[in-house]
Specification:
By secondary structure, the chain is an alpha/beta fold. It has eleven helices and 13 strands. The protein has one domain: Spore Coat Polysaccharide Biosynthesis Protein SpsA, Chain A (Alpha-Beta Complex), CATH 3.90.550. Helix content is about 35%, strand content about 25%. The structure holds 1-O-phosphono-alpha-D-glucopyranose. 1-O-phosphono-alpha-D-glucopyranose (G1P) binds next to strand 11 and helix 9.
């Protein structure tokens, strides 16, 4: 099997209760970072990594995501009529081509492992990427691009990792490190959301994965783990005997956009990175900080 990564899975079935009331009638993945929805950031990152097929595992109330990745004739006609050529061009450049997007529903909120398993028939028998839109990574080259370039040499399961505060291990999948070569780490164990005393390290999985298709067999047999959910981390741990697991220390900054404060950090950071608004935002942030 070649190590080419052509398909990406986007689990977008989550309810987004942490962002209520904003997410009462709107998918959390549509929350914008400046003017671009989180899910579009993830899709563009996948495109930059050479992904050709985009598989969304959705749920009830998520049709806004499907509409977002479709052509909107009324809007295009209006922009055309009003001579807004620049905006019009920008609205098309990130749209996946017809037939490159597929949607399937998770049906029950049984966890990330179950969401990924729901994509098994659409992925088939080849390595694939998983991107969690909540984890926004500002990086150049983009995080998944860095990983795809590395995957040609490593194969196996390759997952983005970062050091977290020891008291935060219970928010993440944590790596039990076997050997540490700096950029790459090999694991001898993985634990989903351990308490700080149980955690084998403070090296955490973040939401970028390149996985072997055999993971679907393990997910199919999986029992419920942390939080009563079918955990992707547990399936990857079960695979360790047959499939090597590599943690990849990416270059870049990750923002936890599943968290309100992390989401605000991301908005400020992305605004400051935008030439059209950086000066204004920098002045505003300085002024407001001085008056605190
Ligand atoms: C999921 C994974 C966890 C990983 C995290 C990264 O957890 O289960 O292993 O560390 O994403 O954001 P969630 O944040 O969905 O609870």
């Amino acid at each position: 099997m070649s190590n080419a990564v052509r398909k990406a899975v986007f689990p977008v079935g989550g309810l987004g209760t942490r962002f209520l009331p904003a997410t009462k009638s709107m998918p959390k993945e549509m929350l914008p970072i400046v003017d671009k929805p989180l899910i579009q950031h993830a899709v563009e990152e996948a495109q930059a990594a050479g992904i050709e097929e985009f598989i969304f595992v959705t749920g009830r109330g998520k049709t806004a995501i499907e509409d977002h990745f479709d052509r909107s004739f009324e809007l295009y006609d209006l922009l055309e009529e009003r001579g807004k050529k620049e905006i019009l061009a920008k609205m098309s450049e990130w749209l996946p081509s017809a037939g490159a997007v597929a949607y399937t529903r998770q049906q029950e909120p049984l966890g990330l492992g179950h969401a990924v398993w729901c994509a098994r028939n659409l992925v088939g028998d080849e390595p694939f990427a998983v991107l969690l839109a909540d984890d926004l990574v500002m990086a150049d080259p983009p995080c998944l691009r860095q990983m795809v370039d590395t995957y040609g040499d490593t194969g196996g399961n390759l997952v983005a990792v970062m050091e977290v505060e020891p008291e935060h291990t219970s928010r993440y999948g944590i790596v039990d490190v076997d050997s540490d070569q700096g950029k790459l780490v090999q694991a001898k164990g993985l634990v989903e959301k351990p308490s700080p005393v149980e955690a084998p390290s403070n090296l955490a999985i973040i939401g970028r994965y390149i996985l072997r298709p055999e993971v679907f067999d393990f997910l199919g047999d999986a029992e419920r783990g942390a939080g009563g959910e079918i955990q992707l981390t547990d399936a990857l741990a079960s695979m360790l005997g047959s499939t090597p697991f590599f943690g990849y220390r990416y270059s870049g900054v990750r923002y936890d956009c599943g968290d309100k404060v992390g989401f605000l950090h991301a908005n400020v950071a992305y605004a400051l990175a935008r030439p059209d608004m950086a000066d204004d935002v920098r002045t505003f942030v300085r002024d407001i900080a001085e008056n605190l």
